[in-house]
Design a protein that fits this description.
This is ABC transporter ATPase. With about 160 residues, the chain is an alpha+beta fold. The protein has two domains: about 90 residues; about 60 residues, no CATH class. The protein contains four helices and nine strands; from the N terminus they run E-H-E-E-E-E-H-E-E-H-E-H-E. A three-stranded antiparallel β-sheet has the order 1-5-4, with helices on one face. A two-stranded antiparallel ribbon has the order 2-3. Helix 1 runs antiparallel to helix 2. It is globular.
């Protein structure tokens, strides 16, 4: 059952999928339509789950489930991954590859695949005080203070050691 994202409890479970490029307006419209339909039928063992999503920075899909009544099962999580894979294929984007790091350069989201991170540091676009998106957040409340962190306070700190 779809619930507007801002009405979800702050302790709701989230999964964040980052794209390797921004979504255009037509893509965002299609993604929203696809995910509203998905949330309206998303269930665990036949029971509807209060669920939602949000698009952030035109480059992140955040899925959310209120697990206070019933947690997401393996099958329900699998179904969410299937819909993300459908979005990935339809829009020719990379959402499921966890081998990438997203960070802010000014107002823009930059994405570095793991083998490229050192190059981003050397060329100066990724700095120790750059805000990076922490993929380990797992509830809505974390989006406010734990999602965007300084690179030097993450596992990336090894790239800035003198």
């Amino acid at each position: 059952m779809y619930v507007p994202f801002d009405k979800m409890p702050k302790d709701s479970k989230i999964w964040i999928y980052q794209s390797d490029r921004p979504f255009d307006e037509q893509e965002k419209t299609w993604i929203i339509s696809k995910l509203v339909a998905f949330c309206n039928q998303w269930n665990t063992h036949g029971a509807e789950m209060p669920s939602s999503f949000d698009l952030k920075y035109d480059q992140f899909i955040i899925l959310s489930v209120d697990q206070s009544q019933m947690g997401a099962s393996g099958c329900s999580i699998d179904s969410s991954v299937r819909v993300i894979r459908e979005i990935e294929v339809k829009l020719n984007i990379n959402l499921l590859d966890s081998g990438k790091v997203a960070y802010l350069e000014g107002e823009n989201v930059k994405v570095a695949f793991l083998p490229e991170i050192k190059n981003h540091v050397v060329e100066g676009s990724l700095k120790s005080n750059s805000k990076m998106f922490n993929p380990s957040v797992n509830k809505i409340a974390d989006l406010n203070d734990k999602w965007l962190i300084e690179a030097e306070k993450s596992w990336l700190k090894k790239y800035f050691a003198n």
